[in-house]
């Protein structure tokens, strides 16, 4: 699979025109993607609330969360990072070659060369995980009280290795085609499967029902995307052109393909190993420590997930620009996306830190999840939030490194250094501070990785203006600091009231201070928001004047004059 994918990525169309979809189209796709992602995040919160209410934060939940390491690891490797970083540039290059290729459609050729190998390989891997579960669980969480229960749950969740492969493949292919709604709906499908299984089977199966829901949710992720991809692959194409371009490697792509693929996989596996480090360190702690880390991380990462929506939508733009040699377009797009992601994640992190106890109480404190669990989870969540900017920058910057077809080990080496710092700091701090010390190690390690990636991107990836980015992010971080203090002071009263007050205060103070500090992106965002409100008001008063339908597609073949 990987060899064929990167072989396509190495072949660039001669004289390919830069692909520049308008900002309006990209913003529309990002908005709709964010809406579905937010719906999936809400269902994720409902899922976590249901798990907390039904099973609490005890040894059974810890056993399930150890088994949940498999789908978390698989999601990062097969959906969010590695699969996307490999296949989006490959499909983007194949689509760019489609009009210039005579004979066989490059896109269909890519699917035939990669999909069967992916299914076979990951199907075997899933079977091996099922068989190896009794030996895997003690490695993931030595000293876990409910080892047998964790083994049963792991065998159920292991099926997601195959279903996540198919889901990630569909997502990458559809995004490269400019179809963003089906990939954005996968979290809705996934969480629906888990919630349904817990509601229907939880009383009889216990936490095994949640593991069965993971297996069902993985299958639903494939079903919501497969019909759309099938329609795109069956679409008729024009076959006139200059003939298929030759590979830059002169036909000897095998060794270079391995060199291109290995850094992506090593980076992804190394990054996800942070979760393994945390659960390994937390396993000997009192019952519930792994659960507190899990719930805190899930809530704290919501701002990061929302902040990366524009990066997800524009990744094919950057990849196509790099394939065409248009580094100017790639640089401008990447810089704006980094700063915009910084705005969203810093404002969200400020809200999380300011109102962490109220947020946790509002979301989870009911049933078996008591006040002690709320206090422990909130403390961990505040520390996790300190590393949110680092997590966001790593996810956004790595797209800049891997959007071009060049063997780059620097991101993998940087991530390995960050994980080493996470492990060392967590080991040193888990004794005096428990789960909070583990979260602090995570924040320190990922922040170091983000700083090193930012410093190296100009030399090894897209030539970003690093100094400008650092100054802009510094001003945004300063605004977030003022907003956090103001939100903390206002987070009083019942949980819902306190959370809303903190959110409103943080938003107003963050925007005001950012404008006062002349932080980038914020003034243009406010201007666009004002213009949007005025346009909406006029439409309400006089009726719609824009006949363009609202859809989730970015027309990949539409070129705008540069």
* Backbone shape: globular
Topology order in helix (H) and strand (E) letters? HHHHHHHHHHHHHHHHHHHHHHHHH
Q: pLDDT below 50 for ≥5 consecutive residues: which ranges?
A: 2-18, 238-258, 545-562
Class based on secondary structure composition and strand pairing: mainly alpha
Count of alpha/pi helices = 25
Q: What is the radius of gyration computed over CA atoms, rounded to a whole number of angstroms?
A: 23 Å
User: How many strands appear in the DSSP assignment?
Assistant: 0
Could you describe the largest sheet, including whether it forms a barrel? Answer: none
Strand portion, in percent? Answer: under 5%
Ends apart, CA distance between termini? 35 Å
Helical content (DSSP H or I, runs of 4+)? over 70%
Please state the average pLDDT score.
81
Concise synopsis of the structure shown:
The protein has 25 helices and no strands. With 562 residues, the chain is mostly helical.
Describe the structure.
It is a single chain. The chain has 562 residues and is mainly alpha-helical. Helix content is 78%, strand content 0%. Helix 3 (59-67) packs across helix 14. The model is unreliable at 2-18, 238-258 and 545-562 (pLDDT under 50).
List keywords for this structure.
0% strand; 562 residues; globular; mainly alpha; 78% helix; 25 helices; disordered C terminus
